Amino acid sequence: MVGTVMFGGALLPTSLSLLWYCLYLLFLLSSNRLLAGTGAIMDSGEYSHKNSGECSENINDVSPLKCAFAIFDADFFNDTKIAEITKGAIELNIPISRANRKLVASTNGGLHDPSYLVFNPDWGSEQVQSKSKRFRYPSLSGIQRPESEEDIAYMTVLELGELIKTKQITSEELTRIFLHRLKRYNHVLEAVITYTDELAYKQAKEADEMLARGIYLGPLHGIPYGLKDIIAVPQYKTTWGSTTFKDQVLDIEASVYKKLKSAGAVLVAKLVTGSLAYDDIWFGGRTLNPWNIEEYSTGSSAGPAASTSAGIVPFAIGSETSGSITYPAARCGVTALRPTFGAVGRTGVMSISESLDKLGPFCRSAVDCAIILDAILGKDPYDLSSRDISLDDPFSVDITNLTVGYMDDAEMEVVHVLESKGVKMVPFELNYTVDDVQGILNFTMDVDMLAHFDEWQRSGEDDSYEAQEQWPVELRRARMIPAVDYVQAQRARGKLVREIRESFSVDAFIGNATDWEKVCIGNLVGMPVLVVPTGFTKISDPPPHGTRRRTAITTGIYAPPNHDHIALALAMAYQSVTTHHRQRPPIDDLGRNDLMLDSISAQPDHRCSETIPCL
Fold first, then answer.
1. Which residues lie closer than 8 Å to 83 by C-beta, 6 or more apart?
2. Whole-number Å distance between alpha carbons of 532 and 580
3. Is residue 540 helix, strand or coil?
4. Distance CA 446, CA 449 (A)
5. From residue 362, how far is each of 70, 316, 343 by CA, in Å?
6. In 137-191, at which residue ranges do the beta strands (DSSP E only) sit?
7. What is the pTM of this model?
8. Which one of 61, 145, 445, 551 has the largest count of C-beta atoms within 10 Å of its C-beta?
9. How far apart are CA 223 and CA 170, in angstroms?
């Protein structure tokens, strides 16, 4: 018979390994469900004041607690100190923690009560001035309306804006075209969560009426677009892509939506976000890549990337904490900007990490990215991390005055094109001594995320999460990260920022946009990157009869914080003499068992304003 020992009301075999023993202890301690003295488990998770003293007395036998301290890498305390720490935690720490949770953590998502620990990506003593003027967009002339709606759908924002301005097309007509395409192709892509037909036609009608009165708001006047569904719009569901929140309606108008509405843009859809902004799996399925519908789009901004790539919206707004703009943009072959941290306000947006989250545009071109950034840039009074930053006009940058580095993994066509345009191109590498940037990012992101979804975890709602190996596992582990180690991670982050700043000896550099080390560094430092399509290759293992499906090739143009205009100017120069960004994915090139809907009139799944798990 195996020997046993009584602990916490449970009989534990003495042959248990130290690891499992410690894990058992950790479960009891971290869930705050061990009722002192009796060994009973309290379902409510609440200590009674009556029993706290009894627990403090019984905790004098500290040998079981040594395992728990070891899991926190704090097994250097002697028995007397462990007993003292435990008594203090029960009497002081836990009541304070519970009071704070009750005050600010009863609602999930981080929409209210943001942290006052604010990350500032500014480098050194450089003074960042308030944004004072708009960009001067290039003037287009001679743009004629194409005969086919397909050709209209793949026009850039600037070109569509010219059609509206010259009254060759109305916003209502353009809205109809894109809503039709959204509903036609979403059957295959699974990129849309909610259609906003009623709102879209209302906004389009207002745009047309304003233009009839001689009021033109600029290049976004009457242009349809989509929002990643972590961005709140009143009267419409904001599902965060999650089964738990799929019926959630927030009475909040996100700041980025307000700015786009003020610029005259027309919201046609809430687009897929991976569940709680993690990868491309959501409660209705998994979003596919228009360039190859046998693979997924990757990244939580899956809907914005796939929809822009497929020409079912002219542009879309996504977000990135650690790769959710760069990865889906690269996979789906679109131009996208992850802007400087703090450049775009995030009020009304589900929060993962206040010091990492960024909003940015997915577009047809770098010119369009500049137009969208100009519209959404600036201080958000309710987002403590947002700032008014003065970017130079990217349309006025003289790129011949720039020195641009290129890394070993840069796409050399970009290097050669920019060099031919007078840019000084030099070999480049980032030098830094911090050896675990992913660890710093994980500590930061996971602890912050847990603070925003503390109640979600405590209530057990994480058990219904769509991919159990993702947030549920990460956030349970995050529960065990001590505050002191979180702070140490931020100090290490500060060291990384200083070393990257000192190493950044060029005006910008070219490198792989999806290299994981660069993704971690870029997000921790807060630097902007523009993802640029540079070509397409055949898919691996194509079918014997041939296929038009392709794998997109992209590169990243990185700039220092508050220098997004440099990356934009370089990308615009490159795209001015190349056509990779204008290629259209073979979205109609389906497999034998796939169905393309030629008519949506008989499809009940596509009713106005409904949240649809398009399976």
1. 59, 60, 62
2. 9
3. coil
4. 5
5. 46, 5, 16
6. none
7. 0.86
8. 445
9. 10
Q: Which of 171, 183, 228, 385 is catalytic?
A: 228
Crossing angle (nearest 10°) for helices 564-575 and 366-376: 150
- The active-site residue, picked from 319, 324, 355, 386, is 324
300 is a catalytic site residue: yes
Do residues 290 and 189 touch, judged by C-beta distance below 8 A? yes
Report the C-alpha gap between 301 and 289 in whole angstroms: 12
The structure tokens listed for 518 are: 């660069």
- With tokens 């005050």, the residue in question is 103
| Count of Cβ atoms closer than 10 Å to residue 152 Cβ | 21
Q: In this structure, are residues 379 and 386 in contact, taking their beta carbons and an 8 Å threshold? A: yes
pLDDT for 77: 84
Task: Tell me how far CA of residue 337 lies from CA of 122, 243, 266, 571, in angstroms.
Answer: 19, 29, 21, 11
- Decide the pairing of beta strands 550-558 and 529-538: antiparallel
Task: Please name the residue ranges forming H helices in 190-230.
Answer: 197-212
**Given 242, 255, 275, 300, the catalytic residue:** 300
pLDDT at 614 > cutoff 90 = no
| 359-383 pLDDT, tens digit each | 999 999 999 999 999 999 999 999 9
Residue 358: is it exposed, middle or buried by C-beta count within 10 angstroms (0-12/13-18/19+)?
A: buried
CB 567 within 8 A of CB 530: yes
| Strands 192-195 vs 292-296: parallel, antiparallel or unpaired | unpaired
How do strand 529-538 and strand 335-338 relate by DSSP bridges? antiparallel
Model confidence at 128, pLDDT cuts 50, 70, 90, reads low
Side chain identity at 435, as an amino acid letter? Answer: D
CA distance 240 to 250: 11
Bridge partner list, 425: 404
Segment 259-281, tens digit of pLDDT: 999 999 999 999 999 999 999 99
Using pLDDT thresholds of 50, 70 and 90, give the confidence band for residue 421. Answer: very high
> What's the rounded mean pLDDT across residues 205-234?
98
Q: Is 228 a catalytic residue?
A: yes
Distances in whole angstroms, Cα of residue 505 to Cα of each of 31, 405, 407, 499, 511: 49, 9, 13, 11, 15
Query: End-to-end alpha-carbon separation of the chain, Å?
Result: 54
d(CA 575, CA 552): 16
DSSP SS3 for 98: helix
- Residue 133 clears pLDDT 80, i.e. is over it: no
**How does residue 125 score in pLDDT terms, banded at 50, 70 and 90?**
low
When mean pLDDT is compared across 28-42, 113-127, 323-337, 390-404, the lowest value belongs to 28-42
Dmax over CA atoms of the chain, in Å, equals: 91
